Structures are given as structure tokens and as C-alpha cells.
Amino acid sequence: MARRKHSPEFKAKVALAAVKGEETTSQIASRFKIHPAQVRSWKKEFVQNASVVFKKSRSEERRLEKEMEHLYKKIGQITVERDFLARKSGLL
Predict the structure, then answer these.
(1) What is the DSSP letter of 2?
(2) Which of 47, 21, 44, 25 is nearest to 34 (CA)?
(3) Which of 14, 41, 49, 76 has its CA 20 to 30 A from that of 35?
């Protein structure tokens, strides 16, 4: 049997079902047509990496703020250059 590749979204859905605890691991595995060991593995990985969601969002937010600041500076520089060139071209 060939190995199937599952999307991150699918893995998250399975892991969330396992974390909720409303069904047994076997029931979840049967519903999603995967092996129970895979459910346990994805649940464990999901729980271990849950804090990444919050860490990433803050660091990503800071990165985006820095990038925006850089872009605003660049816009200001280009505006000044454009105005300078417009004035100089009017003199010719």
C-alpha cells in the first residue's frame, strides 16, 4: 500500500478531535480512515507545539511592523526624489 500524504489542515483536524476527547482514538482513526498510531502521533505533536501559535504571531507581528516602517521610509524617499526631479524638469 502506498503512503498517503496528509495536508496540515487534515492533521490539525484529526489532532483537534483527539484533544477534545469526545471520541476514542480508535473511533477517530476509523472516522478519518487512518491508523490509531497516527492519531496519537499527531495529537502528541499538536500538544507539544501549541505554544508556537502564540510565539509566532508576536514575532511575525514585529517583523511586519519593521517591514512596514521600512516601506514607509522608502515611500518618503521616493516622494522627495520625485518632487525634486519634477522641480528640476520644470526649469528646463
Answers:
(1) P
(2) 25
(3) 49
Contact 27, 55 (CB under 8 A): no
Nearest-angstrom CA–CA distance, 32 and 69: 46
| pTM tops 0.85 | no
Domain that holds residue 61: 54-92
Helix 50-91 with 36-48: angle, nearest 10 deg: 60
Do both 7 and 30 map to the same domain? yes
Q: 11-23: per-residue pLDDT in tens?
A: 999 999 999 999 9
Examine the domain organization and report whether 5 and 30 are in the same domain.
Answer: yes
How many domains is the chain partitioned into structurally?
Answer: 2
